[in-house]
Specification:
By secondary structure, the chain is α/β, with parallel strands linked by helices. It has a domain of 107 residues. It contains 9 helices and 8 strands. It has a two-stranded antiparallel ribbon. Strands 3-6 form a two-stranded antiparallel sheet. Helix 3 runs parallel beside helix 8.
């Protein structure tokens, strides 16, 4: 319960406010002014760091997410301190295929059938295979992010939703590139710290018969990808 003095103070403020509003209504109204656009920017916090120790050995784990804003400014002070004192940096994992000249020709010969496998069979479009409410949401998003791409209507739902996702994050100023990792590399190079690559490289070695069978299996598959599509457009 409010004390009497506090209650009186509140009523006094309300009285002043009502009086100010009444006086303002009596003043001549001026034309509304349009203010210049103000862009507010800030520094994002840096990624989390976890410290793991074993005797006199210390391992720092750097966590990050994707996608991130393309031109994100983030507070890298803590990361800089840890990286600059490290003896070694272990790069994120990944894979890379070494494609030979012969494999390039094999891939080119399979390109047409591979592209066909990503399309809806029978000359149908998304509107023919999707529930009306789902297609309505898709159509609105396609107009917003992919108005210049009418061909996507022929794509199977899982491929169309993937195209939409990448176009949407790009339009929103996001990227899946290593915004944080690129900064780590800069710090490591500036401090002459070695970076150990963990990416696996392997020869692609295309078996044309096997790839052709895989493409045919994809084209004939009846994967229920509409649920994934619906989740993406939602």
């Amino acid at each position: 319960m409010l004390k009497p003095a506090t209650t009186i103070s509140l009523f006094a403020v309300l009285g002043i406010t009502v009086s100010a509003i009444a006086n303002a209504q009596d003043l001549p109204q001026s034309a509304p002014k349009t203010l210049d656009t103000v862009v507010v920017t800030g520094t994002m916090p840096g990624p989390s760091l976890w410290k793991v120790t074993n005797g006199d050995r210390t391992l720092w784990l750097l966590g990050t997410v994707s996608p991130l804003p393309k031109n994100m400014t983030w507070d890298s002070a803590e990361v800089e301190e840890v990286v600059s004192q490290a003896d070694e940096i272990i790069a994120p994992g990944g894979t890379k295929a070494d494609v030979g000249t012969v494999d390039v020709f094999k891939m080119a010969s399979l390109a047409r059938s591979a592209i066909a496998a990503t399309k809806i069979s029978g000359g149908k479009e998304l509107k023919d295979v999707l529930p009306e409410p789902v297609y309505a949401r898709w159509a609105a998003l396609r107009t917003k992010y992919m108005s210049d791409n009418r061909k996507v209507e022929r794509s199977r739902p899982m491929f169309a939703s993937q195209d939409l996702y990448f176009r949407a994050i790009s339009t929103a100023g996001m990227t899946q590139e290593g915004v944080v990792w690129n900064r780590v590399v800069e710090i490591a190079e500036a401090n002459d710290i070695s970076i150990t690559q963990t990416r696996i490289q392997y020869p692609l070695g295309i078996d044309r018969r096997a790839y052709k069978a895989g493409i045919a299996a994809l084209a004939e598959s009846r994967i229920d990808d509409q649920e994934c599509f619906a989740r993406t457009v939602d």
